[in-house]
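Lab manual, section 2.4: Encoding a predicted structure.

Procedure: take the sequence of the chain (282 residues), apply the prediction step described in section 2.3, and record the output as structure tokens. A sample record is shown.
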Amino acid sequence: MNKSAVKSIKKYSCTSLAIAFTLIYLFPLYWMVITSFKTKSEIFSIVPTFWPESFSMEAYITQFTVHDGISMFSYLKNSMIISVGATVISTVLAMFAAYGLARYRMKRKRVMILILTITQMLPMVMFLAPMLQTFNKLGITGSYASVILFDALFSIPMSIIILRPYFAAIPKELEEASIVDGCNRFNCFFKVILPNAYPGIFACASFAFMSAWGDLMASMTFLSDGEKLPMTVMMYKSIGRYGVNWNSLMATATMVIIPIVILFLLMRKSLVSGLTSGSVKG
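Recorded output:
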């Protein structure tokens, strides 16, 4: 067997494995979507169906009705407020922090980066109790600000880790030339540094938005007013005390992931470029 035949076999084998793993990974999403269009009797039938026998929009119509005096659009508005607020705060703070770690000499820089990395290995639930006490003392528990700050603080370390290599890879000569031309540090940062690091900034903003959009624990912990709860809590409410309303649960879950899918489709090039380029720079 010649070398070209061996390469072809390896290529097709790797492609087949990649397709198989992709299908396995996407199957739960597929099952979630088709279950949302099934009737309750079909969901609980002994023989599972991989395609709905008759498409039913009952679950989606039910979600658009008012639950406990709150409409689905109110949940959607709350999710947008929390996600956008957390994204803006985490991205802006991460930009300045990452630039400082990349450009300025400071003691224990490696220790600081190590601490940022370790925080990403810890589960979110560990921070709920201490942050709840802190927010109670600040008097912001029960407001949007508590969830926004928590989600932002949880996203900042990863954003710094992603952005620091971008800033470190930008030649210092660009900054020096702009300063010679009359720019101060802030103008140089916004007009020279940030335009060269936009893929990483988009990646950080997307990461922060997706993290805040899918958060449930913080909203359940810090918010008590039903009118301020996000869509993830609406999905949680589909789980009843004596059983699970599966088609309603899957319909809500499908609606929750739609904005994330749209965001990924619109920013997939910047997102992939930001994650891959930042991993090899600096």
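Check your result against the sample. Residues 278-282 have pLDDT under 50 and may be disordered.
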